[in-house]
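[09:14] KT: can someone run the structure on this one? pasting the chain below
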Amino acid sequence: MSFERLIRLVGNEGFAKLQKTHVAVVGIGGVGSWASESLARSGIGRLTLFDFDVVNPTNLNRQLTCLCDTVGRPKAQVMAERLRKINPAAQIEAINEVFCPENAELLWQVSPDIILDCIDNITYKCYLLAQALERSIPIVTSTGAGGRFDPTQIRVSDLNNTRVDPVALQVRKKLRRDYGFTADRSFHIPAVYSEELPQKPYLTEDESADTYSTSQTFITGKGRHAPPCGTSSFVTGAFGLVAASQVVKAILDR
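[09:31] RB: done, structure tokens below
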């Protein structure tokens, strides 16, 4: 595959850095799928894709893995096959497991140079962020893309300095409480987030106001609860592309 136009942007030295880098993407959903493809098209020499889930029909509106003939198949595997067709020279590996403390060694064993965190589950997200920093592995994180309609409100800052985003707020609180992060210092974690307030989800035709308990929250430390936030490809995709740009920037700046 020719990367001529990319080389014109980053130079031969920069392209060589990209080819020599191993990136792990944890979470191949609405954000992670778009980010993974962008990284493959950016000449990353090795990609490890980490996701436990299978393609679901409800993924159709926002995830690159979801096609009529991929429903029911592991997302990481489907994405790996797609990326190999984009760049056959790259080394692409799929790990069809959930990232959690019990099997985190599966990630550490492959020794990524940099990690892109696209996990929805706040407990596991915080564990990954804390472990990456403890192991001196650079990491970029994506916060909440659900419930947004305006991709122009996506921003990047240190995770300790985001505004508006309720996911980032919960992540910060947990990192401070459980992992010793401090409020007055940089976390050294670039975060992709939105300054658009998340919209309350509409109910579908087969739901009513009594379908869900009013005590439930949309996002908790245990993951996403009903009713799920609305999503769109033009926001989750933009999140993924911005996240990929931050990974590439970190590689080129090394």
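[09:33] KT: thanks! The first helix runs from residue 4 to 19.
[09:34] RB: yep, looked fine to me
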